[in-house]
Design goal:
Length: about 150
Amino acid sequence: MQKPPEEIESSRAIMGIDTQLIKDGAYYVVLAGEAVAGCGGWSRRATLYGGDHTPGRDPELLDPAVDAARVRAMYTHPAYARSGVGRLILTWCEQAAKEEGFKRLELMGTMSGEPLYTKDGFVPTERLTDDRGGVAVALVKMAKPID
């Protein structure tokens, strides 16, 4: 079911690219030829979701012995949906977080992303809405142990 345009715009206002992920070397891009098929990353920082423009960001470094690494800013171009792009990025994120000593992953997903994350072993831990973009957007906080 197609989301109303106002909900899509609201989602863009509360989500988005976090350039800290790029600076940290923890953001990945999947190309199909010269086209961007998808992108996403992980973070060792406390911010769970939101882009550069989103209020409430927390750049504090997480403790891998206690905290979960964050999967962040996952996007797949519609032409490449359900082609393995998102799964590939999740694999890279999990591997990199594991190499830094993290034992768990957390993310804040939209309803359209929940099936991918569930298939990858994430389980919902909290459901909420965020209306900071003007219209309420349903979100799901999910977690997964790192194998």
